[in-house]
Amino acid sequence: MFLRTILLILALIIVTPGLIDAQILDAIDVHLNIHEKTAESTMGLAEARLQISDIGEVQTDKNGSYSFTYPVRNEVDPVISISLLSDGHKMLKPVDGSIQLDATREEMYIDFLVVNMEDESPAFKKRIVDLENKMAALRAKNNLTVRQLNALNNTLVDTILFFEANRRALESEIANYETLTDEQRREISTLNQKIGSLEEQVDQLTSDLEIALEEKYLRQNEYFTNVSSNLMAYLRKAKDLRDHLPFIADYFNSPAGFEHFDKDIKAYNKIWENFDNNRMAYLEGVGRYWENQKAEKNLEEVFDFLVKGIHQNQILTVIRNINTELHKQKPRKAQKIATLSHEDMTVNIRALEKQINRTLSQMRRSI
Questions:
Q1: What rounded mean pLDDT belongs to the chain?
Q2: 147 lies in the same domain as 276
């Protein structure tokens, strides 16, 4: 029951960031808040010295806060590094002080969590060192984004802190005993057993969470790569067919031109079949690994427009009608169909491309 309660609490810790649809800005106002973990709570770390990449050395105010404006310089996903200049304190969140800024936002509020390691137990220190080694190994693999590394690290740190608070509470209860009766000795023995069990649970749960979250983020990256490459490939092939439309009549007396047209039709069909075979799996994957209904809904709208607006209602119909007239030896009529369709297809493909770019950008920023 205790472990089940812990898992429920940890489930509330994991938060998927909202998606933002906006253009990249010239600069971002960044607001930092440095929180120090104490025995019972957290408090702002006053006058903390920080080293910020591209900014230099700064100092927080009496509340542990510092604000600055960061020039984006046309960077899509700018990353800044912030280190705490202190011998006694260690930064727990974010990983190595690395922050991936959202270049579509005018301002960001970023919380840092630090701890004075001299005040902590040997078991806590060991777990933090082990966590640092795990995060370093994951970073070395270069399979996860900065956001994913920080999300994983934050969850594992919160897990360790949760168990550490429970361990402190049990040890405090033991410390209240002075002159011991036999019954109190038995109670202390029971409490020590609980502490031992707690140690085992936190180690196992931390390991399980690390594996589960790494798998989740790797699957996110895999789905994003597959979805984006498939959509981009479809756009290219749809544009290829559109670009043939002004020259259909010329192809009637040009075997080479018609052969090129036929080759692009086959290439389009191959890309379409691959997309059609996987689109439901893509939607299920985004729904599962993004944990964000808006991301799934936006992608579903892209797929719906691609299937109904472009593939079924335009490309299939137009190509079928063109081929019908060409087989009837009526190149002028085929060209008329192509010419009338060219402008509409251009408009719709452009609209689809914008929708795809917007949706992929939203998905990428939530990874």
A1: 81
A2: no
Cα(16)–Cα(148) distance, integer angstroms: 10
pLDDT tens-place string over residues 190-214: 656 666 666 666 666 666 666 667 7
Neighbours of 241 (CB within 10 A): 19
Query: What end-to-end distance do the CA atoms of the chain give, in Å?
Result: 33
Question: Do both 123 and 272 map to the same domain?
Answer: no
Q: What is the CATH number of the domain that holds 6?
A: 2.60.40.1120
Total structural domains in the chain? 2
- Hunting for tokens 């909202």 — which residue is that? 18
Residues 167 and 32 in one domain: yes
Smallest CA-to-CA distance from 152 within 132, 166, 167 is with: 132
Overall pTM surpassing 0.70 (yes/no)? no
How far is Cα 44 from Cα 61, in angstroms, rounded to an integer? 9
Pair (248, 340) in one structural domain: yes
Considering Cα of 262, then 267, then 270, then 276, what sign does the dihedral take? Answer: negative
Q: Is residue 219 part of a domain?
A: no
Q: What three-state secondary structure class fits 115?
A: strand
Sign, CA torsion 306/308/313/317: positive
CA angle, 222 as apex, 283 and 312 as ends, to 5°? 40
Residue 315's closest CA among 291, 349, 270?
A: 349
